[in-house]
Amino acid sequence: MIINFIQSIILSKKIIFIWSLLLFLPACTSQQTEKKSPVPASAYSLKPIPFNKVDLEDNFWQARLKRQAEVLVPFALDKTLPAVENLKKAGKFLNGDSTDLPFPHRYISSDLYKVMEGAALLLMENPDPLLEKRLDDIIEVISNAQKDDGYLYVAHTTGVSKDHDHWGGGGMGDKPYSFVLHSHELYNMGHMYEAAIAYYQATGKEKWLKVAEKNAKHINRVFFEGDPNYNGGKPVNQAPGHEELELALVKLYQVTNNKLYLKMAKKFLDIRGKTYIPDGEGYLSATYSQQHKPVADQDKAVGHAVRAAYLYSGMADVGAQAGTNEYRAALDKIWHNIIDTKMHITGGLGAMHGIEGFGPEYVLPNKEAYNETCAAVGNVFFNYRMFLLHKDARYMDVAEVALFNNALAGVNLEGNKFFYVNPLEADGETPFNHGHPGRSPWFNTACCPSNIARLIPQVSGMMYAHTEDEIYISLYASNSTNIPLPGGKVAIKQISNYPFDENIQLTIHPESKQTFSLKLRIPTWIGEQFVPGKLYDYVQTNAAPWQIKVNGKPQEITLEKGFATINREWKAGDVVQLYLPMPVRFNRCIEEVKSNINRLAVTRGPLVYCAEEVDQGSKVQDFFLNNDPDLEQIATGIIDTGKLNNIISIKIPAFRKKGEEVAKQKLQLIPYYAWNNRGNGSMMIWFPIQ
Q1: In the chain, where does the domain assigned CATH 2.60.40.1180 lie?
Q2: pTM over 0.90
Q3: pLDDT beyond 80 at 23
């Protein structure tokens, strides 16, 4: 089965992901048997071009998508078989067979749903009867595990949670919805909705979508109306402890046009911090799950970083779709709090172990940093939505840094080992990655591998957006697409070796001559700092000016919210050349961040670089830099062998301590996303200076 699946993917010309399509476009597929009524369009300021309308032709993202199809998704489907068995046992229990009960677990089902979502999306342009049959079989198991009233949660359905207290049993409570703060009942269902929608879009089959709708109506009844079988008939009226359902309900609304689901999403936002406020410590505190204040009054990023990023993304979605600005001021304040005080230079969020979350302002450790991969994924999601909301390039600048650095570091170059935790320094021996000193093939909590499976294919859907008379190019890679403007379609072909090459070329082919604005993102890293915010800036301003040519002629262009705008009448064959110089830059951190005092970090373009022990011949902790590095001694080169083939490395002047002796030695650096692909060893991003 897996071999056939892989073969079908290899034969495909492209690999796709549904996230952008589901979030912003009507439901449509040639295989649908029933014509749905028109569904609501996105109310964001910008309309993205969805992933499956952008044909990737590059060496960077296309290679990753190929590995996902050949390795990651089949591997993850096999790894989530225990969740299938648990659901199967729940179905048997509902049919009267209690001889073999499942093991209690809060969220193992959600990992399965995310992987199924990825597999379902591959089917959209890569039909595979065997894979489809495998998913149909699992969907049958899921359907059988759902109670007649719509409830779906293995541990409570079968009663295996009753003999466990809140934390001894994994924090699920002893009956349905008795511990909404940490049971993940609603979180699981959010991921199931997204997967069911994906499968419906891929195949036109409605069975799983109906399971999702049945559950959503059940949740509405229990939480907002009252159901005699739950909570003594009183509405539960609590927000999810782990946000995710809000995002999924917006998607369910968009694919069904049932306004109930959008209303539910807004209700869950609006009751947060009002109807229920936890009063414990740590995991049980109000800030941990962002329930300390009503969402519109929140102004700082607090608590569990993944939950927070999903909440902020949901606030943006609901606000845009419901046509309200009531969350916008809060989102703007939270965003500034993150980038000004709480984000690592890699785009990582949630520096604190224990709560997997945000610590005090300016507490950004290196070796002890947590920076969960899922939090970086959430950072991309949140900032992409802020870009769509504000039409401002700085949000894409943050999304890009989080994407190319912390998020991509979450999976190895082969696609079969993962980071849950992403520190900025390692000694090669101390376990930091949930018991491992390096990457792991899987985790008991497998949210990060399954989230990576969902993120990487979405990238092509973040490259273009438009209004009626503007085309925004927000990420760069070789690709082809068509932009539907009122005056006719505009075909664009982009050629680039981004993020390594400085040159980007776009050929514009409108159906007929028409006037519109082409807006090219000029990243923050081109100027005086690597990423927006107050935390980091460059030691030297040594960048050459960026440049744009149209049909070979240089253009004098000013920036508008970080975009270079070219407004003209375009004709077929017009060529735009964008030059984004990528010198090696040295970064410093503000003094409030004690961990980085008298330290420098190295970046090039959108990439953070690090040193690995395997390239130096000794621990990287033995090295230090000059306070004023000699730029003339810096060299870049393309690695042409091994696992890091075609990656640009950097060599910088440094000093190595060996006992009492100090000697000059070049320090070789590689992109942070590529570290720990050649075995465990020490690693460092922020280098001490003397």
Answers
A1: 464-522+545-579
A2: yes
A3: no
